Amino acid sequence: MSNKREVNPETVGMGRRRFINTAALAGLTVGVAACNDKPANAPAAAASGPVAAPAAAHSGGANATHLKPGELDTYYGLWSGGHNGDVRVLGLPSGRELLRIPCFVPDALVGWGITNESKAVMGTKPDGSLRYTVADTHHLHGSYKDGNYDGRYAWVNDKINSRIARIRLDYFICDKITELPNVQGFHGIFPDKRDPVDPAINYTTRVFCGAEFAIPLPNDGKDVNAPEKYRSMFSCVDAETMEMRWQVLIDGNCDLTATSYDGKLAATNQYNVENGVHYEDMMSAERDACLFFNIARIEEAVKAGKFKTVGSSKVPVVDGTREANKDPKTALTAYVSVPKNPHGVNASPDQKYFICAGKLSPTATVIELAKVLDWFDGKMEKVDGAIVAEVEIGLGPLHTAFDGRGNAYTTLFLDSQVVKWNVEAAIKFHAGDKNAKYVVDRLDVHYQPGHINATHSETVAADGKYLAVGCKFSKDRFLPVGPFHPENEQLVDISGDKMVLMADHPVRGEPHDFIIFKRDIVKPKQVYDLNEFPLAVKDTKESGVFRNGKKVTVKLTSQAPAFSLREFTVKKGDEVTLILTNLDKIEDLTHGFAVPKYNIQFVINPLETKSVTFIADKPGVFWAYCSTFCHALHLEMRTRMIVEA
Ligand code: CUK
Ligand code: CUA
Ligand code: CA
């Protein structure tokens, strides 16, 4: 019997690969007719052949994905969780999920959104309830030092409510969230890699954020029916304080974001230079843009007071529109044209190029950063002179990764492939050398790939070992589980000339972007420091019930298998703040605290302190118990909360 899932041909009618291609192309209407042309260097079977035979399983050797019991992975992966609103930590090459880091939305396992500390990070309304309970994380990037990850922080966006979250990579927790003012659809995110002016600052101090949707500024109910007045902005957040530094008013929209290694440039691809409100309008122009920001000049303008503010926000907004930036010598922005509705923008590890994928155009556009700087210096007349290649690579190109050996790997959404192409060969081809074979290899993936990333891909340390591909559709690759399919994260060995598919991993929807780095980049702490927590109950003797009118503070500690208070009593109607410190300092000795009928549950790691505040509105006896298995007497680890009527 075959181990492969049976598929009823009647419900499919044709190869699934072809089916989705046809459907996707139909949805894109006539504007993408150009996409039907076969890419120049494409092998004959590439564009829309029948379902490909699965690649042979990768056998043995250093790159096997199967680790022996007890063996550790060699790489970490940080994955965005899409509209789960979380961040996931994977071990690679095994693909094992090690942790989910809650940031924007509540998480019942650890009590994120339940404890006072997490609510303070997430943001609350005046009544103390959470301001938002939904989020959509897409893009996640780590902090840099000397062009490589330094393992301090990662940042992730929330597209729904335009928030940026920071992850501390010492504890793998979210410690700050900032809501960007006056923007919607915050999508692309990228930290800078050094300061554009001060060479001593060779690490991340800013994070750039691209907003996709244009809105009236301010969005206060005026101009709602005047879409020609809607505008979008590019934002800069301080990496340390997480406060807004500045914003740039732009023409068109932002999508993804990239930064140069010298700190001088940031960019966003634009798919809506048309400022369209409907998709037909957004795809009416033949070319859109990659919009460059001159960081040093923007900050000089802010310093010189050449800015406005919008609505109640105090954040300086400089003018980055086309009209105001025609003179290269003073321009803050430069609009390099890129074919039809480009998607990603990615910085090559040789520090020279930004690459935009065409999406509705079967091309990749290579922009040389030195030439963009030449334009800003008045040394090049037309900014489009910075385009050094625009080559056909396949249908529906979205995102690009790098191997550090001069090759780029771009996902082809419509072709369900990854195309490996050589950047310098593409530049030669574009310059007229028609013998330059820039497409090196193609690999079928399953199916409809979006993001792609390789080990240390967007750093100077790109090592060309593994490539992960986020496939949006899994279709027949896993046991059926009803209509809602998992996605398929595929791992590819890129250490040789040919890409080799190594493994499929079902994932809960919907990861977008991710980064992969060597395990020695981070040194996670196994136990908290008591001093991280201002409320810490540092000694069991500090435990007790402390009353101040109707406000009651309950302080307790945990040490397996007991809480320091065997019971505690409050009165109906009291506002109770319960502070719990776990005084166990042994690695992996986590306790939990769950209170029946009061909707309280959180975990408490070694030497961690958490607090909750609630109204004791239900009289009775409530067995608060340890919810995390910690000890042979775990079930006995409880305390009685007595609420007197
Ligand atoms: S977008 Cu998801 S596949 Cu948000 Cu980076 Cu391209
Ligand atoms: Cu403490 Cu279970
Ligand atoms: Ca467009």
From TrEMBL:
One of its GO terms (cellular component) is periplasmic space. InterPro entries: CcO_II-like_C, Cupredoxin, N2O_reductase_N, NO_Rdtase, Nos_propeller, NOS_propeller_2, NosZ/Cyto_c_oxidase_sub2, TAT_signal. One of its GO terms (biological process) is denitrification pathway. Its main location: periplasm. Pathway: Nitrogen metabolism; nitrate reduction (denitrification); dinitrogen from nitrate: step 4/4. The keyword Transit peptide does not apply. Its cofactor is Cu cation; Ca(2+). One of its GO terms (molecular function) is copper ion binding. Its EC number is 1.7.2.4. It is found in: Periplasm. It catalyses: N2 + 2 Fe(III)-[cytochrome c] + H2O = nitrous oxide + 2 Fe(II)-[cytochrome c] + 2 H(+). Coiled coil: none annotated. Belongs to the NosZ family. In the C-terminal section; belongs to the cytochrome c oxidase subunit 2 family. Nitrous-oxide reductase is part of a bacterial respiratory system which is activated under anaerobic conditions in the presence of nitrate or nitrous oxide. This is Nitrous-oxide reductase. It comes from Acidovorax soli.
